[in-house]
Design a protein that fits this description.
The structure is a homodimer. Chain A is an alpha/beta fold. Chain A folds into two domains: about 250 residues, Ribonuclease Z/Hydroxyacylglutathione hydrolase-like (Metallo-beta-lactamase, Chain A), CATH 3.60.15; about 40 residues, no CATH class. Chain A has ten helices and 16 strands. In chain A, the strands form three sheets. The first copy, chain A, has a seven-stranded mixed beta sheet with strand order 6-5-4-3-2-1-16. In chain A, helix 7 packs across helix 9. The longest helix of chain A is centred in the last third of the chain and has 11 residues. The relative contact order of chain A is 0.14. Chains A and B meet through helix 1, helix 2, helix 3 and helix 4 of A and helix 1, helix 2, helix 3 and helix 4 of B.
């Protein structure tokens, strides 16, 4: 299972009742944070999560509303006893930029490891998960992220019986280990069905609609997508500022055939993100206007 | 008059119910901000103030809990239409450090002007106010700030009559302008009494008790002083970390003969800053455990 929580949903600057957009993914006792604007450490804690399990931070781009909270987060993690390295994924120059911000935090008790996205694409494993970064289209270089938790095939007891594998070895094979019985090697693929549909989600803010979002979000369980502006009269502004309308996000969700869409990264001018949600739901019914703390546990299907 | 608001009272890192320590001074439609940790822009807005009138930002030192919110503040001020320069006062290298933080805000629509404290001391006028910075004693170079609003002497109508100055010129002299009547020059000092006691306050956090605080706070209307730790059993920790106990702040207030003391910059371990306030009030009765939003208007006496 994966637990996802949109700890903030604001764009541009934080509001007294809306933190900046940031997503927490909890998986197997570990945490991934996507973006960290000013106040994100508080937003995470307000959702009831400790900061300590954050192992990976994915940065979409280097505008302050997505990164200015990083130093405060690091210091608080240090204060709370973090000593394990933290991995930061981001675009070109991520290491220099984060180090520049860290001028006021020269002595962190843990290492920062940097992974720079090369040639606009990155794919890395994280346990049974695959993290991908892909380019989107903003006023500055910006990346979306997708996360896929793989799911093994079903164990096939009939096959195991047919091969004469004693029951005591089945667990090893289910765990992906090979076993040797009477000098004969049995590998997991001999008794496991083909890989089943896992869990998947895609996250993108600060972008115009792009084919890359559709491709990455294809058949996902959830798409978390910016909806900086609500009504169609803001289209020109959205084009100029390289953001999206609710309806554009909904069109992506529909084309990509996702199960659910959460909108986020609202303009500070939007007081009630739900007010014009119909502009999205008319296109893609299962749209939710994300709010600070919206949470979902994604479970493997049957 | 001066209006002072302690917009946050936390030390080290922000808590969900306590912003980082920062003071707003409002004077004559303008604002001075002292320190700007992560979230201070929100703390100021939660107090109901616009960010736009902030003309001067005084930085005590470069630990993140006192400066990490600067970039976010600048960007929001820019978003809100600020075009007038903002002056930043701080210790050695203030310009380089702030510019390093601004790597994620390369295009602010207003200028930053830097005033570096030289030889551990600074004194500058700001309207009828004098702003002073003085060195305190922390684990890194750190400064306290004091603010004094001057008050002119009383206008002496008997003297004006004696000198034969027509009433229609009295206002000019009261405003500090000289007037020429029948080719004779009359200067304000001829009709004004000597300067009266103005308003004064001193602010210091992140320091052990020092003589410099006592000297600057002497007879002040208010001293805003750190009280990182409450009870006497934390003395050793206070000495090691270069902070103060409530009682040490109270002793300064007593020795300096201030009218009122506000404690601030509490350790995140202090859940209720009022709980052990007696450790200060036993020494200096008019002590308040500062809280986010505590506010006072200082008025000239009669």
């Amino acid at each position: 299972m994966l637990e996802i929580t949109l700890v903030g949903t604001g764009g541009t600057f934080p509001l007294p009742n809306r933190w900046l957009t940031s997503l927490v993914i909890r998986y197997n006792g570990r945490m991934i944070l996507i973006d960290c604007g000013e106040g994100t450490q508080l937003a995470v804690r307000k959702c009831g999560y400790s900061l300590n399990p954050i192992d990976i931070i994915c940065i979409t781009h280097f505008h302050a509303d997505h990164i200015a909270g990083l130093v405060g987060l690091f210091l608080t993690m240090g204060n709370m006893g973090r000593t394990k390295p933290v991995k930061i994924i981001g675009g070109r120059n991520v290491e220099n930029i984060v180090k520049s911000l860290c001028v006021i935090a020269p002595e962190l008790p843990f290492q920062l490891e940097f992974l720079e996205i090369q040639d606009d694409f990155l794919e890395m494993p994280f346990g049974d998960m695959i993290i991908k970064a892909f380019a989107v289209e903003h006023s500055t270089k910006c990346y979306g992220y997708s996360f896929r938790l793989k799911r093994k095939g079903k164990f096939l007891p009939d096959k195991a019986k047919e091969l004469g594998i004693p029951i005591k070895y089945w667990k090893n094979l289910q765990k992906g280990e090979s076993v040797v019985i009477d000098e004969k090697i049995f590998t997991p693929d001999m008794v496991m069905g083909s890989e089943r549909k896992g869990l998947s989600l895609t996250y993108c803010t600060d972008t115009r609609p792009t084919q890359s979002i559709i491709d990455n979000a294809k058949d996902n369980d959830i798409l978390i997508c910016e909806g900086m502006y609500d009504t169609p009269d803001k289209l020109q502004k959205a084009i100029e500022k390289k953001h999206m309308l609710y309806s554009e996000a909904a069109n992506i969700a529909k084309t990509a055939n996702v199960k659910e869409l959460w909108l986020t990264h609202y303009s500070p001018c939007i007081e009630n993100p739900n007010e014009n949600i119909y502009t999205a739901t008319d296109i893609f019914e299962n749209t939710k206007a994300g709010y600070d703390g919206i949470n979902k546990i994604l479970m493997f299907g049957e």
